[in-house]
Design a protein that fits this description.
With about 290 residues, the chain is mainly alpha-helical. About 45% of the residues lie in helices and about 5% in strands. It is globular, with a radius of gyration of 22 Å.
Length: about 290
């Protein structure tokens, strides 16, 4: 779907990104009465033990920022929603170290670092935690984990659908038809080291391109963004700053005055999380 970002594909992928953000937020919210051990371990707040160095886990949204920059959105609120999704995962990424990144399926369909979470959970509860069993716990082929912590499978499937719809080529998508909700249920199978998981849903095996050069693409995208920003600081940027500072007064409705930092254009306003989400608009009229 990412090969043609039309009006229809943008909202679909953004909706799944919102689902992934909501699911991730819920899975990190500990219940006040009997909190889930899985939720605690996702936040690095599991019961203290000498065996593990407890740290938060999280997943990388891959090239969603780069891909979604070229998507067509039919309403302004979709653009602001995209910004909020990016802000959520950017803030989370600052707290999660690379060895604790899970669901790294755009690089490999192996269990990856998610086995660390399951291993910690098994240690606390007393489930067998041999290396052969941990991948099967994730796929629910051994149901002991899923029976006691069903939220793991729901969380896993939501993140998979988000990445699948973003990375799958057109010929790998299910055909358009009146599918039933049960058709969307994913069945996972672990095929061993070197092959990883196969995922079945919508009466077919769901596949997307595993990209072993994802880090290189991210680096190229970052360089391209830096080039654009550098160009903005040239003659055009100088003239824009010159005239905007003369025309626009620094009054109570000016973003720079409110935020206490220099804001030269609308893009700078949206890049500031405080302006977007804390509710400064209450003091801004117009």
């Amino acid at each position: 779907m990412h090969h043609a970002f039309g009006v229809s594909s943008g909202p679909v992928i953004l909706s799944l990104a919102c689902m992934a953000a909501i699911a991730d937020s819920v899975i990190r919210t500990a219940a006040c009465d009997v909190p889930s051990l899985f939720c605690l371990h996702m936040n690095g707040q599991g019961p203290p033990t000498f065996r593990f160095r407890l740290q938060p886990f999280g997943f990388d949204i891959g090239l969603f920022a780069e891909y979604s920059a070229f998507m067509k959105f039919s309403a302004p609120d979709l653009c602001t929603t995209r910004t909020r999704v990016l802000d959520y995962f950017y803030a989370q990424r600052l707290t999660v170290e690379n060895p604790n990144l899970i669901f790294d399926w755009e690089r490999s369909l192996e269990p990856g670092n998610f086995t660390k979470v399951i291993d910690q959970l098994c240690w606390d509860v007393g489930f067998p935690n041999t290396p052969q069993l941990l991948p099967r716990y994730i796929s629910c082929e051994d149901p002991i984990i899923n029976e006691n912590y069903p939220e793991i499978a729901y969380y896993r499937d939501i993140i998979f659908y988000f990445k699948f719809m973003m990375l799958a080529p057109h010929d790998a998508l299910p055909e358009p038809k009146a599918w039933m909700p049960i058709d969307a249920k994913l069945v996972w199978k672990y095929n061993g080291v070197g092959t990883g998981y196969s995922i079945h849903g919508f009466n077919q095996t769901l596949k997307f391109t595993v990209d072993d050069k994802l880090d290189e693409k991210k680096e190229l995208a970052a360089k391209a963004k830096d080039t654009i920003n550098t160009a903005k600081t040239g003659v055009t940027g100088f003239l824009s700053k010159l005239f905007s500072s003369r025309i626009r007064g620094r009054g109570s409705t000016d973003a720079s005055a409110i935020l206490g930092q220099k804001i030269d254009d609308e893009e700078g306003q949206w890049a500031c999380p405080f302006f977007c989400f804390v509710g400064v608009r209450k003091s801004v009229r117009g």
